[in-house]
């Protein structure tokens, strides 16, 4: 197993598993999964053809190895330090590219040899909330539950509104105590300017 994670919600307990299965045992593994006891089973298979990429990588590797061999030959024949340094730098770059290509080829080899299987197992949780709307209840009962929940939401909204008003009431009082004299003073000053 490569990876595992589990989740819990109000509705279900579940887990996600990721496996690497040898390619030659893949169909047997899938068959055994299908034989597990379950109430619902969904399966999706997906494949990726990497033949073209592998052939391309192999040809690029050959070309880079030819360049590597040529640079090694140039280094053997180099007569001054400047040429030797230049060929050495080019050789290091080509060898790095060769390592990258070989790394990608190894990765593809491993992925061809093994199949990745992602599996999700879950168990629904029976709700103990009598007000929870579920599909297995009669329509009229679900309608009543929905209406009750809507009414509860309206009550909660107005309760919240009252709490907000109570919270800002002291600020409104302070604003009125400070604001009314300032407004009165401002109007008085304005009238004096008009009278002048």
Write the layout of secondary structure elements.
Elements lengths: L2 E6 L3 E11 L3 H9 L16 H27 L3 H33 E11 L14 H57 L1
Antiparallel strand pairs: 1-2, 2-3
Describe this structure in words.
With 196 residues, the chain is α+β, with helices and mostly antiparallel strands. Helices cover 64% and strands 14% of the residues. The chain has helices at 26-34, 51-77, 81-113, 139-195; strands at residues 3-8, 12-22, 114-124. The protein has a three-stranded antiparallel beta sheet. It starts with a strand and ends with a helix. The relative contact order is 0.11.
Tally of individual helices = 4
Percent of residues in beta strands: 5-15%
Content-based structural category: alpha+beta
How large, in whole angstroms, is the Cα Rg? Answer: 38 Å
Percentage of residues assigned to helices: 55-70%
The end-to-end span amounts to 92 Å
The sequence of SSEs as H and E is: EEHHHEH
CA-based shape = flat
Average predicted confidence as pLDDT: 82
Biggest pleated sheet: 3 strands, antiparallel
Strand order of the largest sheet: 1-2-3
Low-confidence stretches: none
Number of β-strand runs: 3
Give the key terms:
single chain, 196 residues, alpha+beta, three-stranded antiparallel β-sheet, 3 strands, flat
Quickly describe the structure.
The chain contains 4 helices and 3 strands.
């Amino acid at each position: 197993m490569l990876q595992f994670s589990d989740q819990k919600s109000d509705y279900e307990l579940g887990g996600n598993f990721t496996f690497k299965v040898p390619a030659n045992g893949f169909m047997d593994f899938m068959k055994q999964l299908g034989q597990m006891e379950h109430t619902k089973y969904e399966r999706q298979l997906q494949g990726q053809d990497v033949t073209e990429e592998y052939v391309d990588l192999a040809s690029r590797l050959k070309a880079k190895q030819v360049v590597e061999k040529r640079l090694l030959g140039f280094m053997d024949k180099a007569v001054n330090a400047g040429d030797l340094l230049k060929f050495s730098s080019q050789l290091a770059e080509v060898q790095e590219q060769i390592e990258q290509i070989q790394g990608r080829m190894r990765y593809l080899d491993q992925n061809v040899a093994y199949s990745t299987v992602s599996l999700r197992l879950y168990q629904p949780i029976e709700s103990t909330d009598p007000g929870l709307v579920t599909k297995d209840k009669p329509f009229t009962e679900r309608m009543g539950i929905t209406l009750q929940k809507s009414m509860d939401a309206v009550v909660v909204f107005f309760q919240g509104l009252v709490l907000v008003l109570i919270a800002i009431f002291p600020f409104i009082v302070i604003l009125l105590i400070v604001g009314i004299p300032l407004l009165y003073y401002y109007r008085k000053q304005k009238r004096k300017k008009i009278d002048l």
